[in-house]
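Re: Re: token formats

Sure, here are both.
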Amino acid sequence: MIRCVIFDLDGTLSDTAKATMPAICAAAAEFGLPAATEAAIKSAMGYASDAFYKILFPDAAPGLLAPFAERADQLESEMIRSLGGAVLFDGVKSALAELAAAGVAMHIASTGSEGHVGDVLSASGIRGYFAGVSCDEPEKAAMVGRIKRARADAAGRHLPDESFAMVGDKRIDADAARQNGILSVGAAYGYCGRPERELFDAIARHPSELRALLLRAA
């Protein structure tokens, strides 16, 4: 039975583009860079911060991207705090509460920076639902593997792959689940577009479907 669900954050639990889009546009205007589209920003999410900004601004002058990224991150942090719980997709908080009530342990595995992940979890008020938070690493499969091992160590016994599931929105999430032999669920209500949906074992079209999908999978 599924006892542990590992969640991606941006595009899965949080509609982070609400903060990232205006932050990047404001920073781009300050630094003389072209405005990035919302579609481009959502597509680049899932990559670690350095890669994220290089994808958005591949032609930026040498030495410009680092201070730009610092400024964009600062503005994004301010906007996340101002959004509070509204940074989450509708229904996410209720879905987490349902899973917690069902006795499911939950973890975060995000390539986002520690500061960014902390901002989202604190502003949205969902930090208490998670037994652990892994972030600020480019290799999500490694994070998921460590979470599996830590859960097994805490239980003092081997836990089968069927005890775990990964919920995400990008190829990196589906790949991390597959490499660790666990169920993958795509967040179609979030940034999981049509091409990515084919990579996941199951699809949630609204956060309210997560509990039923995971329990049915069990």
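Second one below.
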Amino acid sequence: MNRKKLCFAALLFLLLLNIVCLFYLWNYGNFNKDPRNKIGDYLVKELDLNEHQIASFELLKKDHQEQVQLIKEKNRLFHDQYFDQLKSKALDSTLLNVTLDSITYLQRQIEIVTFKHFYQLRMICDDRQKIKFDSVIQEALRMFAPQRPPKH
């Protein structure tokens, strides 16, 4: 009987420990956090944006995300078309090149839209904030860049 109580207590302790760990990860860890929000929060804090600037920035972010999403959807279709050529018995190099040019063009459009987004953000800053913007933008862009896997 004593052994059953000890096992039950240990099981209960482990269950509570798991619940606490999951709660901590969910609320305070990087679990379920969009990296784009992290960059936005970083810029708002570093630039010390006021309420009006934050509202403008939120509109800029929404517009940027919508534009990039549309471009990515088109890009996905071109990627599918490009790799569907693997199924062909004879490769059509003209179609491959046109499709690859389209993919390259769309990636360029993402870069242009992103540049304009940050340019517009800089324009809503006052002179003091523009100086700070110029010093923190590279760090923000590094945060947004895809993470490279570690070298083996």
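The helical segments are 2-28, 35-47, 51-84, 93-123, 127-144. The chain has two domains: 1-32, 34-144.
- S.
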